[in-house]
Amino acid sequence: MAILHRSLLLIVLFLGFRGVPGAVFTFVNQCNNPVWPGTLSGNGAAPLGNGGFLLAPGASASMTAPAGWSGRFWARTGCSFDDAGNGRCSTGDCGSLKCAVGAGGVPPVTLAEFTLQGSGGKDFYDVSLVDGYNVGMGIKPTGGTGDCQYAGCLADLNHSCPAELQLQEGDAVVACKSACSAFDKPQYCCTGPNSLPSTCSPTTYSQIFKTACPTAYSYAYDDASSTFTCTGTDYVITFCPSGP
Which of 23, 105, 153, 181 has its CA 20 to 30 A from that of 11? Predict the structure, then answer.
């Protein structure tokens, strides 16, 4: 019996070491041009998908995250890399093809953010425009239980971006900055005297984002209408989605 108990203990320890899959992320590129998804894991963990990869128009790719994983994904555009993965991107650049541990995308960039199996076993997820916008993005839970709403930004904000927020490459608007990164003032960044929900309200610029993309974060304290939960689900993340 003692041998059986030790064997069971070894099995439990082995399974605990392996980890239990938290969710499968499937990335779909519906843009007319290639995108290079970037990945950033929280708490200094190794990035999923080696930190980044190429996704051609119409292509898809999947990867599995462990239970308890948190992090973000984004699309990089206008990239050029050599055979060693060295190069740069017009938007969302992280320094190389495979983003290093702790390397996020340079704003302005649309973000998909996740915390898997948080309080009550729920995943938390959102699409954020707090760091600005470069491409449309949608998150669709598949097969889960609970609220499990679609989150995203379907609008092309580059075409409606105010002139003072535009990031241009040549004559083309390739991204739309947040007011925080454009002006670096407390009322736009929710810092200093505006660091609390009671002192940091939506601005004219964040309302432009919110009107265009009602289910996306538009500024730092836009939690109520922008953070979603789901239990026991996988996720489809679509770049340039045409609809939910």
Answer: 23
